[in-house]
Amino acid sequence: MNKFMKASIMLGVLGMLISCGPGKSRSEKGGETTSLNFPMEYTSDQKAIEGGELKVALVTNSPFKGIFSPLHYQEAPDGDIMNYFNEEIFWKNDDFEIVGKEGGMATVTLDEKNKTINIKFREGLKWSDGAPLGVDDFIYTYEVLGSPDYTGVRYSPEDHGTIIGMKEYHEGKAKTISGFEKVSDTELKIHVSELSPKLITGGGALTSGGSILPKHYLSDVAIKDLASSDKVRKNPISNGRFVVKSIVPGESVELVPNENYYLGKPKLDKVVIKTLGTQLQATAMKNGEFHVYLELDQSLYEKFKDFDNLSLIGRPDLYYQYLGFNLGHYDKEKGVSIQDRKTPLQDVKVRQAMAYALNVDEIAQAFYGGIRQRANGVTPPVFKKYYNSSLEGYPYNPEKAKQLLAEAGYKDTDGDGIVDKDGKNLKLHFTTMNGSEVAEPIAQQMLQNWKEIGVDVELTNGRLLDFNLFYDKIQANDDDIDMYMAAWGVGSSLDPAQSKSKYVEFNMTRYANDENERLMNAISDPKGISDPNYKAEAYKKWEEYFVSQAVEVPLMFRYIVVPINKGIKYANVFIDDSKAIYDTQFVTPLPVKASN
To answer: Mean pLDDT across the stretch 325-339?
Structure first.
């Protein structure tokens, strides 16, 4: 599917839909998904009209930050907007595999004998300003990513460090990356120390390499200044369907068709993206104010599902919600997480107890009407080869939670209803975001569940936090947060090291464990390239261990439901780019209003 519409309708991934329909309970095991039987595509029987303006709502209660660089942004709203004008150069198939997949801007193949990653760009590619697009841009992207002056969080010494010469370049000992062999303006060989099976799905040395930067446009900006530069914040150029025309910081973006788009100029006249508060989402849908809703508040599903101006398509998402624990800090100088915070949560039994205390099945049903379900692990069931249905996760079991607390030395010795140890009550601070109507009642339900096992939990600052403040505090490992609820959009490369390794900044919990590193490293063993089952089995072994450590306790998977305004001619949620690609057209000049 084209990356423009991927952003537009919040695409997840296709998985096996089994079990019960909406409104029915799930098994305690957590290993089944809800079958909602939504179609994966929508087609209007009306004739398409010429041109038109795509009206896009970015559902958020906070302004977007506006860091429009694929190497520097960290928050989903910026990524949603950027996907309209910065497309990944590689296409994928239904199994998220990019190696050998043709149709995109570039094709990647692997040479096992010579340990090279071979990239071939299409001839004649251009950026939106008419400048050639190809190998030089790919190399420049990695020069930014690996630079000692890079200010983002996507560089991985384990993955990118397998590129010959990258370590020396990253340490400032070399001016270029010796492992890049430019064959021509459209052909590149990347020499690596080993070929990882992660490469097949765009991970390993290719992590973050699919979205490239324009060298001719950005190279005059110091790498340390890229994230704050006007060329990133105000005037980004495009390799995608649309080009940014204007930006109202934090509020809206207007885009127009890219005359130089490699698959042809889009038929639309323009795209306008505006922020929309969650409390206004259902009303906007009913009134036909927008065609598309990014970062949709799923808790409002019951309010919009029956509007007759919408057609719902959907499927399981690359997403899981989790309960995280603040265990340490990230040492930027050493590039490693240090698990050193003085907290009762360093005891795995205490963490497990906090997990078993939560009645997630009840929360999912009560607040999401069946479109979310308790997660049994950190791998959404959409990943057919990797999903482990035998994992139990943490089903609601308050008695087991109490037993684990007792084993950790926590008992209520003074009869006040709160367990204590060495004369101190077990008191913790929890936080989550205020991004939806159900955020507060869910948080209160969780606090009540913990109270029922004798743990005194309060909200940090006494309230839910704004989106931006929440992630600022989580990344800083502020000491007024012991636990937090957040979510991951799971990358299609399914590479846990990107957020679970002690060497990456995205490891927000700061969990640092050698066995965890060993099991993740095994996933990357080169034998996974020739053995199609090796990586899946290695991945499942790692996941079983990681879930048992209750560091990021899996809470919920979600089914992504995409409301398509019937003013649109066609839309789909397919995975394979070659099946999903299409150009948006309208059947009415404006979005259709609901009559019910």
So the answer is: 95
